[in-house]
């Protein structure tokens, strides 16, 4: 396996994975297929070795684009998705199209051409936990709550059905909340950092007691590469780095690291159906495949992420105003 096709490779985590693989596997050829929605940006892929890298602009829902690209690869790593929960509550349709129909097209292409598939999913398919519940593991029943998580759950079920009914050679990973460079300013951490950088307050949904389990995007990438190379076909692996924090705690760290005080944290309307807590038990991936996260100090990773946004305002500024205008419409 040295020719991979990465769907959604111009987005936050997909591009991190492409840069990671390009560095870690210098003899691999990587093709990216990406529609370049508002969330995709070819600058995320700048500087890659052109002799081993190809970019295809296209929609994963379009069979005529997907099939030849899949036929031309040894394996597909499928990141492409609509990913923002708030957008899914406002307008679910693109989520059904890309996350469900797009995954169906990928599955049909890998089935036809007998290719290896790794499907990227999320911990949100398991719904939410109470503060003292045990963490999610690979046997936790699906209980999605938002249109986003429901369509990701649907895509996971399609992959599981194609494995069982057609013998498709696939694995699935469900990861927790990612942070790091190149994340769109609509998401929680970049939104707050760039709010401070543009003189605006941080926007805390509801009480701020919701808990997310943070992992650096590069640790997600190393987990995916581990599963792609060593995972058992047909299996699901959870990826997480034991990074549980309340949203309030994350915001307190951001203001501290950026030299502000808590008066900068403003409480806004809560997200409808807001999941209370996510938490991942990644012991199967650690014990069976020997994976370990590298970024275990969240405060250090967050400080480096803040530095990246300080130094790359030409990357995020073009998206900032329109993103905040959308939030204003939602009252958040
Ligand atoms: P993102 O929104 O930053 O990027 C998504 C990419 O997919 C963009 O480049 C976009 O242009 C592309 N895309 C969207 N629709 C497409 C289509 N129809 N055809 C081709 N390309 C299309 O997303 P992300 O945060 O990098 O997430 C990537 C994957 O990881 C998703 O599958 C998501 O569900 C999963 N995931 C994300 C997180 C997280 O914290 N962000 C955690 C766990 C899992
Ligand atoms: O758990 C994995 C998931 O993490 C991924 O599957 C999703 O694609 C990704 O977007 C993320 O979903 P969340 O809804 O958890 O992430 P978001 O960054 O939107 O919000 C994180 C938490 O912060 C959530 O509890 C809502 C809250 N929040 C969010 C924003 C944008 C705020 O308090 N203020 C904000 O401005």
List keywords for this structure.
single chain; 332 residues; alpha/beta; 7-stranded parallel beta sheet; 3-stranded mixed beta sheet; 11 helices; 12 strands; 43% helix; binds nicotinamide-adenine-dinucleotide; binds 2'deoxy-thymidine-5'-diphospho-alpha-D-glucose
Structure description:
It is a single chain. This protein has 332 residues and is of the alpha/beta class. It has helices at 12-24, 63-71, 85-90, 93-113, 147-166, 188-197, 217-230, 247-257, 283-289, 298-311, 313-330; strands spanning 3-7, 29-34, 53-57, 75-78, 116-122, 170-175, 177-179, 202-205, 211-216, 236-239, 244-246, 265-268. The strands form 3 sheets. A 7-stranded parallel β-sheet has the order 3-2-1-4-5-6-10, sandwiched between helices. Helix 2 (63-71) packs parallel to helix 4 (93-113). Bound molecules: nicotinamide-adenine-dinucleotide (NAD) and 2'deoxy-thymidine-5'-diphospho-alpha-D-glucose. Nicotinamide-adenine-dinucleotide is lined by residues 7-8, 10-14, 34-37, 39-40, 59-61, 79-83, 98, 102, 120, 122, 152, 175, 177-178, 184. The site of nicotinamide-adenine-dinucleotide (NAD) has 30 residues, from helix 1, helix 4, strand 5 and strand 7.
- Give the proportion of residues in helices: 40-55%
Main sheet? 7 strands, parallel
Mean pLDDT reading:
98
The DSSP helix count reads 11
Briefly characterize the structure.
The protein is α/β, with parallel strands linked by helices.
């Amino acid at each position: 396996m040295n020719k991979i096709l990465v769907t959604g490779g111009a987005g936050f985590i997909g591009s991190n994975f492409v840069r990671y693989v390009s560095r870690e596997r210098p003899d691999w050829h990587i093709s990216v297929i990406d529609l370049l929605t508002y969330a995709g940006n070819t600058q995320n892929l700048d500087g890659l070795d052109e002799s081993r890298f190809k970019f295809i602009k296209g929609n994963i829902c379009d069979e005529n684009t997907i099939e030849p690209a899949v036929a031309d690869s040894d394996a597909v790593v499928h990141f492409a998705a609509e990913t923002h929960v708030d957008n899914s509550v406002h307008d679910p349709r693109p989520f059904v199209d890309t996350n469900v129909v797009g995954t169906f097209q990928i599955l049909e292409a890998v089935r036809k051409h007998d290719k290896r598939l790794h499907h990227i999913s999320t911990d949100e398919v398991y719904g939410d936990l109470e503060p003292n519940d045990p963490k999610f593991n690979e046997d936790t029943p699906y209980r999605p709550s938002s249109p986003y998580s429901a369509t990701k759950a649907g895509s996971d079920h399609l992959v599981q059905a194609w494995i069982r009914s057609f013998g498709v050679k696939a694995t699935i990973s469900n990861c927790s909340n990612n942070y790091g460079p190149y994340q769109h300013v609509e998401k929680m951490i970049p939104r707050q950092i760039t709010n401070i950088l543009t003189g605006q307050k941080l926007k805390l949904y509801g009480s701020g007691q919701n808990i997310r389990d943070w992992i650096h995007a590069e640790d997600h990438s190393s987990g995916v590469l581990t599963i792609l190379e060593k995972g058992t076909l047909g299996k699901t692996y959870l990826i997480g780095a034991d990074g549980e924090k309340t949203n309030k705690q994350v915001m307190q760290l951001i203001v501290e690291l950026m030299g502000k005080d808590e008066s900068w944290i403003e409480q806004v309307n809560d997200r409808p159906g807001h999941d209370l807590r996510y938490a991942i038990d990644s012991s199967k991936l650690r014990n069976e495949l020997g994976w370990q996260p590298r970024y275990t100090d969240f405060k250090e990773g967050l400080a480096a992420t803040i530095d990246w946004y300080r130094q790359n305002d030409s990357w995020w500024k073009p998206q900032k105003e329109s993103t905040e205008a959308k939030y204003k419409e939602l009252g958040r």
